[in-house]
Amino acid sequence: MINTLEIYLCVSAILLNLGIFAVITRKNAVAILMGLELILNSANINFIAFNRFGNFQVLDGHIFSIFVIVLAAAEAAVALAIIINLFKNLGTVKVNEATELKG
Questions:
Q1: How far apart are CA 72 and CA 19, in angstroms?
Q2: Furthest-apart CA pair in the chain: how many Å?
Q3: H/E element holding 100?
Q4: d(CA 18, CA 49)
Q5: Entry pTM
Q6: Could you write out the DSSP letters of every residue in 38-88?
């Protein structure tokens, strides 16, 4: 099997498009978070692929990917806490039904 940069970029583009489609079309907050995770994973694939095929001797792509994974974990924790609070107050996790914030 041929291992080229174009294959990684095509997989990353497919993940990016699926993530954007999920964020735009979904009304459920959990599904929107899953779309955001797909977008972040496509960025990770790009970091690793460009680091591998760029003939660099340093691991910058891997380090950036680790930062993105840590950022995604923090984002997921905060967003799930918001979703739980939304469900507790409104009884639903549909984003379009949450029209105002209660103080």
A1: 14
A2: 57
A3: none
A4: 19
A5: 0.82
A6: HHHHHHHHHHHHHHHHTT-SS-HHHHHHHHHHHHHHHHHHHHHHHHHHHHH
Euclidean distance between CA atoms 81 and 75, whole angstroms: 10
pLDDT at 1 over 80: no
Give the pLDDT confidence score for residue 101 in this predicted structure: 61
The three-class DSSP label of residue 23 is helix
Q: How many CA atoms lie within 13 A of 26 on its CB side?
A: 16
In the chain, the domains with their CATH numbers are 5-97 (1.10.287.3510)
What angle, rounded to 10 degrees, do the helices at 29-53 and 5-25 form? Answer: 160
Pull the structure tokens for residue 17: 């498009």
Token pair belonging to 5: 């940069």
Tokens, residue 35: 């779309």
